[in-house]
Amino acid sequence: MARSTPVRKAWRSLAWLGVITVGLTAILAGGVLFSTATWAPKLALDLEGGTQIILAPRLESGQTVTQEQLDQAVSIIRDRIDASGVAEAEVTTQGGQNVVVSIPGEPDAQTLARIQSSAKLEFRPVIYTDVATTSTADSSTPTPEPTDGSTPTPEPTLESTPTAQPTDASDPNWVTPALYDQFLNFDCTTLNDSNANVAPAAEPLITCEQDGSFKYILGPVEVSGETISDATSGIVPNSQGASTGVWGVFITFNGEGTDQFAKVTERLFGFPQNDPRNRFAIVLDGAVISAPTTQAIITDGKPVISGNFTQETAKTLADQLKFGALPIGFEVQSSETISATLGSAQLQSGIIAGIIGLILVIVYSLFQYRLLGSVTIASLVVAAVLTYLVIAILSWRQGYRLSLAGVAGLIVAIGLTVDSFIVYFERIRDELRDGRALTGAVEAGWKRALRTIYAAKAINLLSAIILFILAVGNVRGFALTLGITVVIDVIVVVLFTHPIMQLLAETRFFSSGHPASGLDPNALGAVYRGRAQFRSPLVAPKSGAGREAARRQTIAERKAAELESKDSTRTKGKDS
Fold it and tell me: By three-state DSSP, how is residue 315 classified?
């Protein structure tokens, strides 16, 4: 019964490993059949090539761009791209004026939006709109859904337009005859033209919805996007907390932004629901994302932008707002396909280097551990399968691309993975030298080895995490593959290597200590053969293994002799 318990645990562990492997395979297969996944991981810029986009700054007459602005733009664009996954993109400056972005493969519309959009977010009160309608956006998570207004806004006229100085950002006195004339002649189709709808923060703005459906006169900026401390995307709940199925962007303001937003909503909440001044406009890069009604005073600084978002567009906007606005606007000057900086030859060289390293590890394992080395080989195969599946899934879901640095991380991982097996095997052999049977040696050696393995892998994983956080570009790919293989190494040792050893310990070939098993007690120098029974030391050992056995035997016999002498002394003392 005692022997059957480890066997049952072994089969249970192997079953869990099978579930994990099948689950990962099913996820990848589902992605291949029903989505954009591929069986092979996507390659990075240095191995596959991609697209080079040159961004030129949009400058007014006489305006120049500084190096500080370019460096800030490079940092923000890199953060935005990395937020979508480790894409191994390269972001540099060119000629002291342009920004060059090199991306593996062909970028989609969302990636281009991340790169190009300045993401300048402003909150402006609505003074006038051509149709009194309400956006579908919520102004805050706990507030009720906005309701549609039905009363048209009275058109300002030259006779009725006030001329007094405005008292606040919602004051109609901002609408001068000249501004109203400009509003009537403003063409929403020019919304995306350079400087077509740009106004200083302290002045009103004429603009339209992003789709050009509604036209607005907005008051000065009351809350700036610079006060946003965090932004995430997700499903927006309704007032009861149930899911609405609508994607939105959850914004968190800092202390300054929270105070400003509370004051704005307090003033706007005092206007009637059908008054356009009850609404505030969320303006991104000069265009209105939404203009919801104010149905509550929002004091927690956590509004929600919702509307016609998809999962991808909501995440794109959240990333743009989270990492901040670009210091200056950019436009795409050129976009062209570029070839791989290294190419397939370097990838092939890296793969050959990995195969050579793997062969050397296999040869060493078989030489050092005889047939026990086959457990090392099988464990490496399992680790390779899991690593491949994880990287392929990350390539599909997170945009990860395998670079030459990532390949190097996988090669390094071979040695780190084998270390775990060596630690475990040596602990088993130590227990055999102390006279334990193989089944007991496997369990006792596992308890001793597990602490060492966990400590070593924790250090490796911590190093990979720190490197991933602090590094950029290809080095992040190296850190990611290294971290992945460390985690998989622990899984394989726990769910495969140890269970296999538990099963092998029950076989006659290994339990009997066959010389070819690598667990021969005689070759290891084991001396214990029952209570106070030790075999004689070997004479004139010739081989390296024999010399080691003799050395260990001598030490063991010396300790045994000391214990026997002490026992003899105690016995004589009692007899006397």
Answer: helix
Separation between Cα atoms, residue 301 and residue 33, nearest integer Å? 43
Q: Summarize pLDDT for 101-149 with one digit per residue, the tens.
A: 888 877 777 777 777 776 677 889 999 887 533 333 344 333 333 334 3
* Tens-place pLDDT, residues 23-39: 999 999 999 999 888 99
Q: Global pTM? A: 0.63
The label of the residue with tokens 């310990």 reads 505
Tokens of 227: 């006060």
Q: What Cα–Cα distance (Å) separates residue 88 from each residue in 230, 330, 331, 345?
A: 25, 22, 22, 19
Sheet containing strand 330-338, edge to edge, reads 90-94, 98-104, 50-57, 330-338
Q: Which amino acid is at 45?
A: L
| Cα dihedral 402/403/405/411 (nearest 10) | 50
Tell me if 58 sits within 8 A of 328, measured CB to CB: yes
Instruction: Compute the distance between CA of residue 118 and CA of residue 287 in angstroms, rounded to an integer.
Output: 12
- CA dist 282 and 303 (Å) reads 11
CA atoms within 13 A on the CB side of 66: 5
The C-alpha atoms of residue 424 and residue 420 are separated, in whole angstroms, by 6
Q: How far apart are CA 448 and CA 501, in angstroms?
A: 15
Q: Measured between alpha carbons, how far is residue 243 from residues 138, 148, 237 in Å?
A: 14, 21, 4
Helix or strand or coil: residue 541?
Answer: coil
- CB count within 10 Å of CB 272 equals 10
496 vs 105: CA distance, rounded Å: 38
pLDDT in tens, 374-422: 999 999 999 999 999 999 999 888 878 888 888 888 888 888 888 898 9
On whether the CB atoms of residues 528 and 435 are closer than 8 A, the answer is: yes
Q: What is the dihedral of CA 353, 358, 361, 362, to 10 degrees?
A: -140
Burial label for 87, CB within 10 Å (0-12, 13-18, 19+), is: buried
